[in-house]
Amino acid sequence: MRVTVIGSGYVGLVTGACLSDLGFKVVCLDKDEDKVKMLQAGEVPIYEPGLKELLSRNHAEGRIRFTTDAQLAIDHGDILFIAVGTPAQEDGSADLAHVLSVAAMVGRNLKDFKLIVNKSTVPVGTADRVRAAVKHELTQRGMSSEMFDVVSNPEFLKEGAAIDDFMRPDRIVVGIDDGIHHEKSQRMMGDLYASFNRHHSRTVWMDVRSAELTKYAANAMLATRISFMNEIANLADALGADVDQIRRGIGADNRIGYSFLYAGCGYGGSCFPKDTQALVSTAQAHGQLMSVVNATEQVNERQKTLLVDRLVKRLGDDLTGRKIAVWGLAFKPNTDDMREAPSRVVIKSLLERGAHVTAYDPVAGHEAMVALKLDCAGQEALLNNFNLVAHDMDALHGVDALMVLTEWKNFHNPDFQAMKLSMRTPYILDGRNLYNPDALADLGIAYQGIGRRNELINLSVEPVMLETPALNA
Ligand SMILES: NC(=O)c1ccc[n+]([C@@H]2O[C@H](COP(=O)([O-])OP(=O)(O)OC[C@H]3O[C@@H](n4cnc5c(N)ncnc54)[C@H](O)[C@@H]3O)[C@@H](O)[C@H]2O)c1
């Protein structure tokens, strides 16, 4: 069985790389010529641990190819994955333009039976629309409209651990509808994922609509756990309790478990924000309320501004003359993905208040510049006060505060003494609760985490007053 993956972004490349590593002959199609040229030359356009090695090995061994040639790609695969983007539109609903244009392209190029597998995250009913778009093209060409099937196979990988998630899935959701191709489609999907089902079956078979909704339900549930913990953390701050102790106290309950209970400065990424919005939008279109998911989003938006609010409370609203360091730009560690990253909200807000921001991220610097240029469109002068540095300690010279926004491993155990000497005021706003408040208290470093008995940690360390009194306002 041969596989074609249409859309060579995060999901498409990981899917293609992993399936080629399992022995399938894979063709990855993308409409972006530069991206395909890079891939053909052995370069990988995204940072994802292990991906480059996996692609180069399978490319060298002839199991994976990259192309912009639609006809070649459609001819190649018995299974055609759709893995193109489904970004949020202005009203929050998912934009299906890429998915439907791929469906039409498949219909224009189809010569024999193909199984179309929808891997993009799409609202309920999209498989029907893909089916209709393919049929329309086939009918135009005077061909049988029964020479394909459409199934749903949503992707649950996490960026930063994508290869491992794909190769060792908790479950594989496959939605297939009753119809003349049901048995054949089920057999093909079973064969495709047989390597993962040898020990016990990880595949959860269901109908297409349920599979489409399962993906949104999973992301909404995970996002809700984060926002719930963020609200508990903010309450813990107000009450002098410690959210990390609470996390361990509730996580030990089997009914709750430990995952996704970390409080922080908000979630981001290409999935949770857009998928929760799309779910709310779908519910609205069907006259349903999604109160919990709505609240999840609102809490997250507030959480992204929490650290700046705290800084302003201490240093004043006008941050002119203040220097702030930021460690971590990507929305999470082990990726350079800046989509919806909290750092974007934080940095823009600091720059608008007149602060000078020096930032460090192990891999996301380039993507961060692209994102911040977009965010500051029309206010380009703001970026004169922003600079990136190549080492974490270089960000700290003479700063009034350090904000930690991404939990990269190399931020876990820094040299606090050296940091204290380098900073103008030793003050850390820890957006990922990486540090031990008691240890920092002993070191005389002012510290604010998220939900960690905030007001108690050395906030008596006075900020340095600036020479111009107005700047201390
Ligand atoms: N990134 C994640 O962590 C993740 C996880 C699970 C599910 N998803 C879902 O998977 C889908 C893809 O996400 P992504 O992050 O990989 O997107 P992406 O933006 O990284 O990649 C999409 C790719 O599709 C290509 N493309 C668009 N239209 C095309 C066309 N007509 N023909 C060929 N190529 C085309 C683009 O050029 C791009 O390279 C989305 O629906 C997303 O919600 C993403």
Describe how the helices and strands are arranged.
Layout: E1 2-6, H1 10-21, E2 25-29, H2 33-40, H3 51-60, E3 64-67, H4 70-76, E4 79-82, H5 97-109, E5 114-118, H6 126-140, E6 148-152, H7 162-167, E7 172-175, H8 182-192, E8 203-206, H9 208-239, H10 243-251, H11 272-285, H12 291-304, H13 306-315, E9 323-327, H14 342-352, E10 356-360, H15 365-375, E11 386-388, E12 401-404, H16 416-422, E13 427-430, H17 437-443, E14 446-448
Parallel strand pairs: 1-2, 1-4, 2-3, 4-5, 5-6, 7-8, 9-10, 9-12, 10-11, 12-13, 13-14
Helix pairs in contact: 1-3, 5-6, 9-11, 9-12, 11-12
Largest sheet: 6 strands, parallel
Q: CATH topology of the largest domain, what is it called?
A: Rossmann fold
Mean pLDDT: 95
CATH homologous superfamily heading of the largest domain: NAD(P)-binding Rossmann-like Domain
Family: Belongs to the UDP-glucose/GDP-mannose dehydrogenase family.
Active site: 271
Protein name: UDP-glucose 6-dehydrogenase
Binding site for substrate: 156-159, 215, 260-264, 268, 332
Which features does this protein show?
473 residues; 3 domains; six-stranded parallel beta sheet; alpha/beta; elongated; Rossmann fold; 17 helices; binds nicotinamide-adenine-dinucleotide; 42% helix; N-(1-d-carboxylethyl)-l-norvaline Dehydrogenase, domain 2; disordered C terminus
